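Pasting two entries for a bug report.
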Amino acid sequence: MLKRTLLMTSFLGASCTTPSSKIVNLPAGQQSAALPSPEPFVPEPPKERDQRFCTDSIYGQYLKKHYRAAASKELRSIRGWRQRRQFKRKIKHEVRHHAKIALDHSEGVVTSESFPVVRNPKVDRWIHYFENEGRSTFMKWLVRSENFKGILLPLLKEDGMPQELLFLAMIESGFNNRAYSRARATGTWQFMSGTARIYGLRVNYWLDERRDPVKSTVAAAKYLKDLYTDFGDWYLAIASYNAGPGRINRAIRRLKTRDFWTIAESRYIRSETKNYVPKMLAALNIARNPQKYGFYYIPSANDYTPRASVTVDRPVKLSDVAQKLNIPAKYLQRWNPELIKGITPPLHRIDGQPYRIRIPENYVQQFEAIKPTLAFLEIKDVKMHRIRRGETLTHIARRYKVPLRKIMKMNPNLSPRRLRPGKKIAIPIPAIITRSKPKTV
């Protein structure tokens, strides 16, 4: 009963509107906007429509009536006041969500996959900023976006996510894989380490997969899908991506509204979050038609990300691979930004699976030829440090970025006040030893 009611409400709301916009991939040779303008609408032959449902007030009354009818029938089979209360909240949330989508259509809001793209004074202020003071920065973002679209958009589409969310990454990092915030978030989607691990990204001594554009996009799609499931509204989901779900939920409870623009007028969220959604919508509006706003650009080879990859079954240095392939080491590091030490991780840190290095397709065969000649690296879990004259444990801990208590734990008989120069102590970080370089076959 409930599902039929929800389907009916969505149909009736959409019956008073025109079709939503659709995002398509640009041809490979076309130097154009990040997203095209909506396709021209060709009107269909006129159909008979029930105009009783084309006004917000009557439509709202209709929804309320059917909500009550569906809820009352379902509630009869539910026992326990806690379960009944949870069920009421669930139905109310779903009906409100479907009603909002339908009413967005009736108000003429351009949507794609139920993602509303609006223009209001707050969005216009950010458009004006990007056209003037922020012009050079936004131009860099647009240039980078051309090289990331082909990689990220298919991943969002595969997860059933609105492709407009691509521009969330633009606002977060400017499509800079190495972007690092004061809050210690990093990568294309600016994940915090705790959230990254929850959504399957590895962050350790060797790897920081927040910097991998493919893996971080898959994780971001899952996270955004969870946020949308919780809030039922894309603007609230995006705001909570920035501020955290807890802060947005508190604002909703205190203001008793789920409208982002109302919440943005309050003191319950930070200024950064208030501007977060308008800033993204401004970027999206400009990127759909950059020439309209005076942005003309072509993709840059510096931001190129290869699609091909090769596997290694032992730790190797990227510099060694680059030397054998006769390409600059900085390019190989740029194509594999998640390898923060410039070395592929030991197999036990990646579940025993061979590690994939991203390289251009025309280098794949050459890599297979030089693969047996790569230096073998032996990784130990402890590094031995020889104490120098004048060194203290505090200096040593800072040098290796290891807590002092961990050094003391690994060296229980060590006295911080009696450090003898020349004595070796154990440091709990991996040590890398090059054992041999196989002869060229």
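Entry 2 (this is the one that rendered wrong in the viewer):
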Amino acid sequence: GMAPIKQHVDIFEVLDGVKAIVCHSRRSAHIYLVDRSELDEALERLISDDRFELVLTRDNMVDYGLDNPRSGDLFVAVKEGYILSLEEKLRGSCGGVSDKELMVFLMANKPEYADIIEGADILTVVRAIKRYLLEARAIELVRHELKRADPVHDWGHTIRVLRMATKIALRCKADVEVVRLAAIFHDAKRYLGAEGHEEAGARLAEELLATEGAPRELVERVKKVILSHHAQRDELATIEEQVLWEADKLEVLGLVGLARAILEEKDIERGLERLLKRLGKYGSKISLPWAKEMAEKRVAVALRAARVLKDELESKA
């Protein structure tokens, strides 16, 4: 609805003398500094101006997982009721933009959406937001399901696989949307037992995606990836299937793999044996970019930990 605008904030006046390119909308702006040595000066002016609600540097953006070249050197947003403009005062709905609407920038520039926001076309932001909202609904559903899961297959496992699968998919030019949705649902029904959990997870994904109006092709591809995440390595037919398979297997390597094995066996010595078998079975089968490097590191760390643990169990250390 219509809302009063208290004051127009002239950001060019605030940054007077600072060489910068400012791309602004009604309440927010991306600031690209011509000379980065002026960053501290620009930052001091913006932070000291109490009309600004949010001031983020590139370092802050990295901390939030928002490192994207399009984000600029600084991102700012004025408080509700203010507007970034040189125009005279007026009344308009822009003065009532909610805090949630300001999150559009933060969502659209998340690195997991880098596959659709590489260019400068502003319309790609719409695709990023749609994907974000669909994933948010999927995550809400799966987190509820996994309240009944054991510690090995809980939400913590799912979110780690999701993050690793995203990194691999981006490097392999795989379909990131398919991979991420499949990762979210891959163990959603694992708490019911190992047998048939792939099919149950695929059905749950299909129900949610169909309800949300996802294209049929997307639904089928997501289901196929979920169904194959426990297949044999040589049975994987697409890059998306391979991405999720390798991300899931990375979880059984390294120190996380050691902890999982002990939890599964409910015994330290048997857990150690289980870990060593998995290192031999999966360590050399992970081959995609970034995943292979991570696998090698995790195997090395796990082997060192296994030696120390074995010595301690035998009272040698």
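Dev reply: Rendering is fixed now. As a check, the viewer should reflect this: Confidence is low (pLDDT under 50) at residues 87-97.
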